[in-house]
Design brief:
Blueprint (H helix, E strand, L loop, with lengths): L1 H22 L5 H8 L3 E2 H4 L4 E2 L22 E2 L1 H17 L3 E7 L4 H9 L6 H4 L17 E8 L23 H6 L5 H16 L3 E2 L6 E3 L3 H7 L5
Helix pairs in contact: 4-8
Bound molecules: zinc ion (ZN).
The site of zinc ion (ZN) has 5 residues, from strand 5.
């Protein structure tokens, strides 16, 4: 009995250390580089924005933690301010909701890791899953964000597919079709529309293929105004 209690305590202690290491990275090179380039931790503008970077967990399409110490969402200043505005608009309309960020500024080094992790696919197919390093992603300029809406109890709203779902069911451009043939429910579409509405009111642009992805700027403008995050 004593032995099992001791084991249990050890387990709790180990979990605690693992959690604190992940949630308190000091210092993290990726984050330091973004700070040096003028990017901003979105939580410094609005601590109520929830952040869970999926690439800093193993719950992502490569099933690997590719971010390591990077656990905060950094964006360029203007997109970060726009995100805080979107969260304020959301909370005003639905006080028990908040934005939950899955990804923001993404170092180019990691873009290459994501690209190479899909080497089993030919390049033209890989490009439907992740932007090619030769093209660069707007995330690499700190001007794009992946996110959903969560309740203030930490339950994400049902958007009909998980984040990074590779298939047409994730396409905003096909929602009406999937609603008609009952592959998406009215509530799922209502939830997606709410996310798009608050993001667009704050100046973000949705894309056709991923309900979770929003650009603060067109790729050409992001390239012209900002440097890539290495
Ligand atoms: Zn994205």
């Amino acid at each position: 009995m004593k032995h099992s209690i001791a084991l249990c305590l050890l387990h709790i202690l180990t979990m605690g250390i693992a959690f604190s290491q992940k949630s308190n990275p000091v210092p993290c090179d990726y984050e330091q580089k973004m700070i040096q380039q003028g990017l901003i931790n979105v939580k410094s503008l609005d601590p109520s924005i929830a952040v869970l970077l999926k690439y800093s967990t193993i719950d992502n399409f490569v099933n690997k933690d590719v971010y390591g110490c990077m656990t905060a969402c950094y964006l360029q200043k203007k997109p970060a301010q726009m995100l805080a505005r979107a969260n304020a608009i959301l909370k005003k309309k639905h006080p028990h909701y908040r934005l939950l960020v899955y990804d923001g500024g993404r170092p180019f080094t990691i873009q290459k890791i994501l690209w190479n992790s899909l080497s089993q696919y030919p390049p033209h197919q890989r490009e439907t899953y992740v932007a090619s390093p030769s093209q660069k992603s707007i995330h690499n300029y700190g001007c794009a964000v992946d996110l959903t809406i969560t309740t203030n109890r930490g339950v994400p709203l049902d958007m009909g597919t998980p984040f990074d779902f590779f298939g047409k069911l994730a396409y905003p451009s096909h929602e009406e079709h999937f609603l008609k043939n009952k592959q998406l429910t009215t509530q799922q579409v209502v939830n997606r529309r709410l996310l798009r509405s608050v993001m667009q009111q704050a100046g973000f642009m949705p894309i056709k293929y991923e309900w979770w992805h929003f650009n603060a700027l067109a790729r050409s403008d992001a390239k012209r105004i900002y440097q890539i995050i290495e």
